[in-house]
Amino acid sequence: MAAADSFRIGLARLSLLMDSTTDDHDLWLPEEFGSIFRHQLTAPLCTELAGLAPQLGEMLAGLRTPDGRPVATFGDLLRHPEPPVALLELVKEFAKASRGPGRRQLPPEVASMLYYLSIGIALLRCDHRLSSLSDAALQEGFHWASAQPWADEETRNLLCRAETCFLITAVKLRHSEQGGTPVQDP
Amino acid sequence: MTRQRGEGNVHFPSTHWTELAALARALAAGDRQALGPLIQRYEGPLRAYLLRERGFDADRADDLLQDFFVARFLTGDLLARADQHRGRFRTLVLAALNNFAASERRAQAAVKRSPERWVSADVEDLEGKLSDADSPSEVFEAAWARQVLQEVLARVQERCRLDGRADLSGVLECRLLAEPRASYDELVQRFGYQTPGQVANAVRTATALYARTLHEVLRLEARDEDDIEELKADLLTILGKARAGPADARRR
Question: Which residues of chain B have a CB within 8 Å of the CB of A75?
Fold first, then answer.
């Protein structure tokens, strides 16, 4: 490949390159969030989560996808019909850490998507609440995540269902407080 | 000057040019390796100046430059006098070239026994080409800036190759320097990164390597560390002017 011509790049970008102390301003482009999210779903669990759980190998041992393969990637785990809650907890913690200050491994938006996705899956498939956030905060988070244009259809549908759970719960609660008959589940 | 880590047989000076002046005086005859990078940096820009701004033909330009480097750089004369100079090192080099050419002209005129008319024509031609020595040369400045950036890229590529991290120089070229820049998917496909974290780390490392190498390259022309930051500002100013087009076009 011919050597890149530094003369052609924008002055703003060259200025950022010249300064090694600049933050991650130019690291990710918003139009790439979908690609980054999809890439994260293919990332090996043992590479990304090992720092959070020394016993990760044991947690993954014997865990198989519906078609018989070992669960190895984020996507394998998040698409599993009965994912172990402990592993979903690790994904949530990984996402939370990726949103934090310092050298982020993901754009904050993609980390947030992963965060709410892990919580939503735990709610819908494991009937388990991973987060101590309030219902309103979780509902808002699911709504935000499902509205992201770069989310794939499967992810969007799951997040919408998770948001709907809170909407129904909220309606039931209001109805109960007002002394009405119990709302039947759909 | 010391070899820098991971550079194998590649020798990159890591000192300010004021230290080179002392080194140049101490060098044994024929042992001029330390000054090589500085000469290589200026050969192109000075040639561009002679050809495009002063109308020299290629052969005359090359002859003059060869004599200039031998007479002024390799003897340490230029660097020694640069101690007294308060402006930019490249300004000194350009002025020195113009002065050298003028004194060469005077020496030739003194030696030649040709008819005065012929000598006068040759002298006038050379003076006409090299007058106005104090005005800044945008051609020279732009060529200097391009040379510096190309040198930075070449050093980064060599370091990455020696360290077994060709992917970093690749990321630098296709994602950080190229227009249009490579997409995220292209980075993953081309370099085989398994996670977004690996991509992010590669981009950060390539960025830091470029900044560090630029700093080292500019150090050779700087009086001190503060001067390096001013040289970076010079680069951006020169690039801005180069993009805006020729001076006369900008004034319209």
Answer: none
